[in-house]
Design brief:
With about 220 residues, the chain is an alpha+beta fold. It has seven helices and eight strands, in the order αββββαβααβαββαα. It is about 40% helix and about 15% strand. It has an eight-stranded mixed β-sheet, sandwiched between helices. The mean pLDDT is about 95. Bound molecules: zinc ion.
Amino acid sequence: MNEVELRESICKLGVRLYELGMVAATDGNLSVRLGPDRYLCTPSGMSKAEMLPEDMIIADGQGQLVAGERKVTSEFFTHLAAYEERPDVMAVIHAHPTYGIALTLAGISLEAPVLPETVAMFGGIPTAPYATPSSKEGAEAIRPYIRECDGLLMDRHGALTVGKTLMEAFMKMEKLEHAAQICYLAYALGKVAPLNSEQMRKIIQARTEYGVSSPMYGVER
Ligand SMILES: [Zn+2]
């Protein structure tokens, strides 16, 4: 994709995040790595449902505005932390998915391997410790986790996913929240057993056969 297409794609996926209820008001941000020290990102203070391609900003690796009419979001440092830790990823999405956040409020983790497709995509889904939203402390809080997974929850705040493309990062966000919804229901219904070691072995084998090389959080391989 060229830069024009990337700007359009960010706007489209912003609308989809909004329609899925994963962002309210001006919540959330999407970014793409354009090249060394250049990132295309959604601006500060805009609804993700209302953005136009020309609203995007370009920032450098220090979080300074390089191009665009609007302001760099304070959450851009969290995106930068993800790009720094993961040279292999090209896109980062941060949203505030309802079920995912609710589970963190209740102190319920998504790390346990219970859903095979979630395990295949992420391994376990960790929860980064609480930090003030939009702070540099929040950016530091995700580093040790994003090194080892493509999606995580941020305690009392939201979720962050990464991908080789914007669409991949978006689908991971959708999948993460879907898993949170399923687990919310299942844990409300009763006891949920984790996958056993033989089931886990087969998932890991299938991943290898499909050539999936993304990290698996907390899974012995
Ligand atoms: Zn946020």
